[in-house]
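[job 0412] stage=fold_complex status=start
inputs:
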Amino acid sequence: MKKIKMIISAGIIALSFTACNTAGSKQTNNTDSAQTGQVTMPANNTNPAEGIVTGYLNLKNSLADDNGSAAAKNGKEILDALSKFDASRLTPDQKKVFLGLVGDIKENSEHISENGDKIAHQREHFEMLSKDMYDLLKATGTSKEMYLDSCPMYDNGKGTWLSEMKEIKNPYLGKKMDTCGAVKETIK
Amino acid sequence: MHIFKKILVVLLIIFIVIQFIQPDRNKSVQVVPADVTKDVSVPENVQIILQAACYDCHSNNTNYPWYNYVQPVGWILANHIKHGKRDLNFSDFGSYPIRKQQSKLKAIADQIKDGEMPLYSYTIIHKKARLSKEQKVLITDWAQKAQDSLDKINP
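[job 0412] stage=fold_complex status=done
writing structure:
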């Protein structure tokens, strides 16, 4: 009887481990891009990075509204735009910059899309993503004026972000301090 | 034989058979040119902590525990290491584009500060990987300094 018990427990342990393993390795690839609202990409975009930037700006606005689950969807929006991105439209110099950024943009967007319930964590990755976006915009240029904003009250003044409007809407502090910050640079 | 017994015997056989399927080991003897020390300076006291608390999953060299030889535990560890290295690999850090290096250094500091890393499931077994307050400060300060040094090249 004892023997049988041992065999049973060994079997159960083996089974539970393998079950764990397969569940852990499952990829999250549920594509629900249909429910992304907010700004949509114009059909005749002149800037090859337009879709990525649009996703980023939506993300910035969601974070300013303290809306983590919307921010998660925007993260997904950036990932979708990234997968559709046509690198052949870039000049060799732009391509070099893009290739140096694409991995980081992807990882930061993944973290943002997977942490809809942790807005502080999303903001940490948003800070890094903002730097990626700045580099990307500098390389590809922008069809409309963009602003680089910074906030002295977040991460020792290192928290910067890009905005489509001159008016400050702080994505790091959200509604409680939404006008904190200043325009540092105008990107044309 | 009772059907229940038959199932048990089959399970036992499976358990024995899977012991022979050992995953590839994450061990590299060669000195890697893309090690983290290539682009940022890592003082010895920081290096020691990184090796004890991070390198098992975030480098090309894992210090394996004995139970790694028991399957399917070894498979789970291999999977952990694979994901860990994909997110951050100190042995390959020097090959990352500079923006990614900056992001990773910031993420290291953030994760340590937030207590997300090292993973609880890891420190519960690996006492050496439990970080004291002072060690955490050491790591976050280092990550910050390293970030600042990269910011000078690439603001």
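[job 0412] summary: The domain at 48-187 of chain A is CATH 1.20.120 (Four Helix Bundle (Hemerythrin (Met), subunit A)).
[job 0412] exit 0
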